[in-house]
Amino acid sequence: MHDGSGRIAVQNLTKQFGAVTAVQNLSFTVEPGSVTGFLGPNGAGKTTTLRMLLGLVKPTAGTATINGRQHHELGNPARVVGSVLDNGSFHPKRTARDHLRVYAAAIGVPDQRVDELLGLVGLAPAADRKAGGFSLGMRQRLALATALLGDPQVLVLDEPANGLDPEGIAWLRNFLRSFAAQGRTVLVSSHLLSEVEQTIDQVVIVSAGMTRYYGPLENLRKSQRSRVLVQPADATGLVSALREAGFNEVEPTQDGRVAVPGATVQQIGDIAAKAGIAVYGMEEQQADLEQLFFQLTSPQYSGAPIPGVPQQQPGWGQQVPQAQYQQPGPQSGPQMQYQQPGPQSGPQAQYQQPHQQPGQQPQPNQGWGGQQQ
């Protein structure tokens, strides 16, 4: 039955290609009004799952529905779900405007909608340019405009930030949150948690075709604890004092310090002072959410250790200066402020300038994906 909710439901989904099991008994739901991240390393089964959801691949077992129906039962699917699985399905000799007009005619949408979307995604200045000359970021924008032609209730995007510059990533983040705030449904896949961490509310983490975590991103954050590294004059005495105070998970580090999970500098300082133990230094470490993601998804395609490169302890990120550290809380989000730098995390965390919002026309010289205007 078509319930009109915009809810995505994946139940016990399995897909086998011969002897290869690409997806194995996968189950999760995506609710309207939120942005859900579908995360996993390359080869985890993300794209195969999305293709089954969109009716492009037949499941071996299980179901994937939108509004309580499979994709082929939706009537006019483009009016219900917009999707981007491949940004290369453009005729190279066709302009961006003509490309959208062809799709608009196919789903019964007036040409006026084409110009609206060209402005929305920032392609209005390039509307009459041939798609064959577009950069990767510009093709991503055109693909998103195509998905939005039918004003869908559900948006499914596979690696949408691929090829975007920092300004484009920030615009996309704001757009997806605005889209979900209208009570619509967003499912976005990525192989990098840092790429979508500031956008998503819920997260489904998969590896080797199986679910590794499913739930609110905030719960994943709360599962990580900070720890304090202490250099005391008397390590044995400090450990005893800490355990008497209720800190029982104290452990030594390779460099001779004492690691105290779940404690603050102030707490340890008070305990050391009360026990009469001198402390020569303390520093707090914040658990890295990206490292937890690697821990959940490894070792699907892990390589051999690199000679001369020390292995980082799973779950711990870079050290946090004491003056800037904030105690974890519902709104503090220290993981986002002190995130371990990754291939694409830096621009997202640092770029703070205002961006074009949905429905606004692009500003002069505003680019996305390297376009020069």
From TrEMBL:
SUPFAM superfamilies: P-loop containing nucleoside triphosphate hydrolases. PANTHER family: ABC TRANSPORTER, ATP-BINDING PROTEIN. Residues 303-373 are annotated as: Disordered. Residues 303-366 have a biased composition (Low complexity). This is ABC-type multidrug transport system, ATPase component. Transmembrane segments: none annotated. InterPro entries: AAA+_ATPase, ABC_transporter-like_ATP-bd, ABC_transporter-like_CS, P-loop_NTPase. GO terms for molecular function: ATP binding; ATP hydrolysis activity. Keywords: ATP-binding, Nucleotide-binding, Transport. It comes from Saccharomonospora glauca K62. Belongs to the ABC transporter superfamily. Residues 8-233 form the ABC transporter domain.
